TrEMBL record:
Belongs to the eukaryotic GSH synthase family. CDD domains: eu-GS (cd00228). ATP binds at residues 239, 404, 458-467, 469, 494-497, 520, 547, 553. Homodimer. This is Glutathione synthetase. Mg(2+) binds at E239, N241, E462. Its EC number is 6.3.2.3.
Length: 569
């Protein structure tokens, strides 16, 4: 569980280009080794009897570069401006793909890319350009197309349907976990001692428990992220985002872009636009916010969007606000945490006023990372909102339910049974879990030191660029073991997932890059409950993100990946 990196400062447009260059060169610097995308092992994440030895031969053929999971926070260092690059690999090294890109005429690619850039510009598939000083503050200034894949990524229909099917179960799970304050406090008690940010969140949670604060109306807008492991053919969960689940607006647009391109070029590409599933994420998220606003029952109240001071991904958020206004006649206001501290006021009846306006729903697109709290002002604002009667999306308990440590705790034997009643639902959820372990497990830690390429270390941090890979895993574990401190409580270990690799075209800064890529599927979910009545519990569209396979981190808004859609196979 965790949060998307969507609100990180965008590194999406590091160069300005005024034409569409499309030339060809040979790509030899990154992928010269055989890209065997098989996972070195498969196992039951709840079992300690992991058959590592039986997979050592497979390990010898594993890629030297990480083709990993872990929140899609990878750093891309392989894209070169101004070139359409070829790929140099051995025959059979790349997984089956929906399209033989080597056979695509370069002139056709150039036509498709040009039309895609025009469509993106006309339909609001946009982000702020980091080279424009005010692009994160003033709408309409310094806009550039969001990075996207030129064509959709193939994905098995049965796996997609399964991910959609479990979304309402995960929604219900988050709600039930959020109601167990003791479980949250106990599970994070050791983390609290070594992680100041988690400690501050837990302090707010404790204060709400002390005053017996009840959230009669509970709203969750979630996104569960998965990768399809090539060796086991299992769809494994990377994390469940419960705060600031980004890109409902732009992901819906990318789906429409790809459908439009296949309507025009599908015959030449031998692809059918109807194979791209519909994506109504922004409409359904807006519907959930509107229903929560209605349940609050104050027609003069607004939805408060808590935003970062500089937000180059603002257009994804503005799409949601626009749909809320046009379809539901609900007004939104945008404020930073610091502004809420200055302009916010709590009335005796619990009503939250910001700039004199009553707030029905607080929708967080900030507040999930320590950098969002540079002073006590921001913490005061968070506490003020939590104390109010406004519907919080998420509440502090929903936020904590999405931490990586809670994800790891839920993967333990018999823990899901504490929160879910239906045995079939439990089995479906457990099937999604990758291997997750506490650093208290000495056997797993020893194996991770021996084979660090099979693991990822994940701290209680969100927003991208925080995970630890490869030799750094070994070095960090050895340091923690030598020091013998409680710092190990700040991390969990997660199984490395090895997804299949496919050639694809990536569009960034008006330039088309041809490269090997892997993808991560995110399934949105919306949950709204008033006391005992579940008003909404739905799967709400999807987000596909694609990144160059030779890098570790991959958040779109952090500049590491591109937005994509799905072509069902």
């Amino acid at each position: 569980m965790g949060v998307a990196s969507s609100s990180s400062l965008l590194s999406l447009a590091s160069h300005q280009h005024h034409s569409f260059p499309l030339t060809t060169t040979t790509f030899s610097s990154q992928i010269k080794t055989k890209l065997d995308s098989r996972s070195p092992f498969s196992f039951d994440p709840t079992s300690k009897n992991i058959p590592f030895e039986s997979h050592l031969q497979l390990l010898a053929h594993s890629p030297t570069t990480h083709l990993s999971n872990c929140g899609f926070h990878w750093k891309v260092g392989t894209m070169k401006c101004g070139r359409l690059r070829e790929m140099e690999t051995e025959v059979g090294a790349v997984a089956n793909t929906l399209l033989d890109l080597h056979g695509v005429n370069q002139d056709l690619v150039e036509k498709i890319a040009f039309d895609a850039l025009v469509w993106s510009s006309l339909h609001g598939l946009l982000v702020g350009d980091k080279t424009a000083q005010r692009s994160g503050k003033v709408p309409g200034v310094g806009m550039v197309h969001a990075p996207f894949s030129l064509l959709p990524m193939s994905f098995p229909e049965n796996q997609f349907n399964m991910a959609c099917e479990v979304a309402p179960i995960f929604n219900e799970l988050v709600d039930r976990v959020s109601l167990d304050g003791k479980f949250l406090q106990d599970s994070l008690s050791r983390t609290k001692k070594v992680d100041v940010f988690t400690a501050r969140l837990l302090d707010i949670h404790s204060k709400m428990l002390e005053i017996n604060k009840k959230e009669d109306i509970r709203l969750g807008l979630h996104r569960s992220d998965y990768m399809l492991d090539e060796h086991t053919k299992l769809l494994l969960q990377i994390e469940l985002n419960t705060i600031s689940s980004s890109f409902p607006g732009l992901s819906s647009l990318v789906t429409e872009l790809h459908r439009n391109l296949l309507i025009h070029y599908g015959e030449q590409l031998r692809l059918d636009s109807k194979k791209i599933p519909g994506n109504t994420a922004v409409k359904q998220f807006a519907e959930a916010l509107a229903k929560a606003w209605t349940e609050y029952n104050n027609p003069r109240a607004v939805v408060l969007v808590v935003a970062q001071p500089e937000e180059r991904n603002m257009y994804d958020q503005h799409w949601l606000s626009s749909v809320l206004k046009e379809r539901h006649n609900v007004t939104t206001i945008r404020k930073t945490l610091a502004e809420i501290d200055t302009e916010g006021e709590l009335l005796p009846d619990g009503t939250l006023l910001v700039s004199g306006q009553a707030v029905a729903v607080v929708y967080f697109r900030a507040g999930y990372t320590p950098v969002d709290y540079p002073s006590e002002s921001e913490w005061r604002a968070r506490l003020l909102m939590e104390q109010s009667s406004a519907v919080k999306c998420p509440s502090i308990s929903y936020h904590l339910a999405g931490t990586k440590k809670i994800q790891q705790e839920l993967a333990k034997p018999n823990v899901l049974e504490r929160f879910l009643d239906n045995k079939e639902d439990i089995a479906k959820v457990r099937k999604c879990f990758a291997g997750l372990w506490s650093l208290d497990d000495s056997e797993i830690v020893s194996h991770a030191i021996e084979k660090p390429e099979l693991y990822v270390m994940k701290p209680q941090r969100e927003g991208g660029g925080n995970n630890i890979y490869g030799e750094d895993v070994r070095e960090t574990l050895l340091r923690l073991r030598k020091e013998g401190s409680e710092e190990n409580a700040a991390y969990i270990l997660m199984q490395m997932i090895f997804p299949s690799v496919s050639p694809t075209f990536l569009m960034r800064d008006g330039i088309c890059h041809k490269d090997h890529a892997i993808s991560e599927l995110g399934i949105y979910g919306a949950y709204l409950r008033k006391k005992e009545k579940v008003i909404m519990n739905e799967q709400c569209g999807y987000l596909m993100r694609t990144k160059v396979s030779s890098s570790n981190e991959g958040g779109v808004a952090a500049g590491f990946a591109v937005l994509d859609s799905i072509y069902l196979t």
